[in-house]
C-alpha cells in the first residue's frame, strides 16, 4: 500500500526557485513542470510530453511567451497545459493536454495539490506567515532525504533526540529530561507537542544568535498539520522572564522553525527547512550563522534517517517497535496520517 497521502497540498518549491526557466521536480512520485507566465503566475503541469513523453524541462524544450515548446517534435502547450499546436497538421487532437495541477504561491512557498484537482478548493493550505512577513527575517533551504517522509515526521515530533543527535548545536541535557504534553485536535487536523523548560542551558544555536549568556527559559511548542507542514514555535528568554498577561512578549526572542515534509517518492523526501526570527533582523552575521547551523542540524537528521531507511528496507515486515512517553506526539501524527490516507 502507498504511504503517500493524496488529495492534499504539498510544498513543491520556494517561490524564488521558479522563474522563466523550465523547472522540474518530482512530488509524490509525479514529475511536475513549473514555470512563470510573463505576468508572473506560477504554473504546474506534467513534465511529460503527451506525444512521446519527452520531459518538457529538458533542453531543447523551451518557453515562447506563455507557451512551452517540446524539444523533441515541437508539441506546444499553454499555461493551462492544453496543447495549442502540433507539427505537420492544423488539427490538434482534443485529448492533447498535459495534466495540470492546482498551484498556489503563499508564505514564500509554491504549494501544489496532489490528487483529484476538483477537491483542491475544499482542502485548506496550512499557513507559515512568518516566512514572508514584516518584522521577521528568514533563512531557508532544502535537503534531499533518501528516506520515507514518515521517518522525518517521527524525527521532528520527538525533539528529545536534539540532546543526542544535535549536541553542541541545539541539544542540551534539559531537552531530553523535560516531559512533553501532547494535544490532538482532530477537527483542525493538528497535533501539538509542548516542552517547556524553565531553567535550561542555552545551546550555541541560540546563544550565538540572541547574545544571551547564562541560563534560559526555553519553550518548544510544535504544531504539525499533516501531511506537509510542521512548525516549531521556539521561545527563548532569560530564566524567569515570561510573557505579559496581555500576551505581549517583548523581552523574549522568538524563532519559528518551519519544515515542509514533501514526499519525492515512496522512499525519498524533500526536506524544506526555514528559520524565521523576530530579532537581529538586519544582522547578516546572525543570518549566516543560523543558516549554517540549521543546515548542519538538518544534515545530521538526514544522515541518521538515511541509515534508518536502509535498515527498514532490509528487514521483514512486522517489526515491533518499542515506544515510550517521548513518542506520544509521533504516534498521534502517525494516526492522523493513517486516517488521511484511508479517508476515515
Ligand atoms: S515527445 Fe514531445 S513533441 Fe514528441
Ligand atoms: Fe533533528
From TrEMBL:
Stored Gene3D superfamilies: Naphthalene 1,2-dioxygenase Alpha Subunit, Chain A, domain 1 (3.90.380.10), Rieske [2Fe-2S] iron-sulphur domain (2.102.10.10)
GO molecular function annotation: 2 iron, 2 sulfur cluster binding; dioxygenase activity; metal ion binding; monooxygenase activity; oxidoreductase activity, acting on paired donors, with incorporation or reduction of molecular oxygen
Limits of the Rieske domain: 9-112
Classification via InterPro entries: Cholesterol_7-desaturase, Rieske_2Fe-2S, Rieske_2Fe-2S_sf, VanA_C_cat
Keywords: 2Fe-2S, Dioxygenase, Iron, Iron-sulfur, Metal-binding, Oxidoreductase
Pfam family, any one: Rieske
Domain of life: Bacteria
Name by which UniProt lists this protein: Aromatic ring-hydroxylating dioxygenase subunit alpha
Amino acid at each position: 500500500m502507498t504511504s503517500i497521502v493524496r488529495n492534499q497540498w504539498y510544498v513543491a518549491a520556494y517561490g524564488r526557485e521558479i522563474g522563466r526557466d523550465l523547472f522540474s521536480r518530482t512530488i509524490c512520485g509525479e514529475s511536475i513542470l513549473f514555470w512563470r507566465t510573463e505576468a508572473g503566475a506560477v504554473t504546474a503541469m506534467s513534465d511529460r510530453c503527451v506525444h512521446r513523453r519527452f520531459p518538457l524541462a529538458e533542453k531543447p524544450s523551451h518557453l515562447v511567451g506563455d507557451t512551452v515548446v517540446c524539444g523533441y517534435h515541437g508539441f506546444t502547450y499553454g499555461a493551462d497545459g492544453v496543447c495549442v499546436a502540433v507539427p505537420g497538421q492544423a488539427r490538434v487532437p482534443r485529448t492533447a493536454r498535459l495534466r495540470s495541477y492546482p498551484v498556489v504561491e503563499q508564505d514564500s512557498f509554491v504549494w501544489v495539490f496532489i490528487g483529484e484537482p476538483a477537491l483542491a478548493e475544499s482542502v485548506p493550505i496550512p499557513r507559515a506567515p512568518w516566512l514572508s512577513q514584516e518584522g521577521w527575517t528568514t533563512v531557508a533551504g532544502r535537503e534531499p532525504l533518501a528516506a520515507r517522509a514518515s521517518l522525518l515526521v517521527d524525527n521532528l515530533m520527538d525533539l528529545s533526540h536534539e540532546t543526542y543527535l544535535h549536541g553542541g548545536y541545539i541539544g542540551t541535557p534539559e531537552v531530553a529530561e523535560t516531559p512533553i504534553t501532547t494535544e490532538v485536535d482532530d477537527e483542525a487536523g493538528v497535533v501539538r507537542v509542548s516542552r517547556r523548560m524553565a531553567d535550561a542551558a542555552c545551546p550555541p544555536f541560540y546563544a550565538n544568535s540572541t547574545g544571551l549568556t547564562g541560563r534560559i527559559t526555553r519553550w518548544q511548542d510544535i504544531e504539525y498539520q499533516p501531511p506537509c507542514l510542521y512548525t516549531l514555535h521556539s521561545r527563548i528568554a532569560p530564566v524567569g522572564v515570561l510573557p505579559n498577561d496581555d500576551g505581549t512578549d517583548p523581552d523574549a526572542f522568538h524563532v519559528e522553525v518551519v519544515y515542509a515534509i514533501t514526499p519525492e517518492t515512496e522512499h525519498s523526501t524533500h526536506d524544506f527547512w526555514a528559520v524565521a526570527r523576530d530579532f537581529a533582523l538586519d544582522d547578516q552575521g546572525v543570518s549566516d550563522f543560523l543558516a549554517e547551523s540549521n543546515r548542519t542540524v538538518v544534515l545530521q537528521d538526514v544522515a541518521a534517517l538515511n541509515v534508518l531507511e536502509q535498515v527498514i528496507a532490509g528487514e521483514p515486515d512486522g517489526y515491533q517497535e518499542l515506544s515510550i512517553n517521548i513518542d506520544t506526539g509521533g504516534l498521534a501524527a502517525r494516526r492522523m496520517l493513517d486516517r488521511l490516507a484511508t479517508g476515515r
